[in-house]
Amino acid sequence: LEVTKTQSGPITGALGASLSYFVDYKIVPKQFTPGIEKKLSRRSVLAAYLALGITLALSRLWNKAQEQRP
Predict the structure, then answer these.
(1) CA neighbor of 54 nearest in space, from 2, 24, 9, 7
(2) What confidence tens digit (pLDDT) does each residue in 27-44 have?
(3) Looking at residue 42, what DSSP letter applies?
(4) What is the rounded distance in angstroms from the CA atom of residue 27 to the CA atom of residue 31?
(5) Hey, which bits of the chain come out as E strands?
(6) Distances (CA, A) of 40 to 18, 19, 36, 68
(7) pLDDT by residue (tens digit) across 45-70?
(8) Alpha carbon distance 41, 33 (integer Å)
(9) Does the pTM of the predicted model rise above 0.70?
(10) Average of pLDDT values for 5-14?
(11) For residues 52 and 19, is the Cβ–Cβ distance under 8 A?
(12) What residue ranges do the domains of the chain occupy?
């Protein structure tokens, strides 16, 4: 089997953050959700998931830069 790497960092980041939100707030029973929405505004929760997506997207670039180092 051959493992190939894709160049889909931004897409992967967006999908990862979306999947995290969906699981946290739509699949997991209410008593097991993260609960951050009780302390933060809706806008702040959105910002946290956006930060997660951006971090996931940029991690591909970071890993690529590390692989190219001598």
Answers:
(1) 9
(2) 988 888 778 888 889 899
(3) H
(4) 11
(5) none
(6) 19, 20, 6, 40
(7) 889 999 988 888 888 777 666 666 66
(8) 16
(9) no
(10) 72
(11) no
(12) 9-67
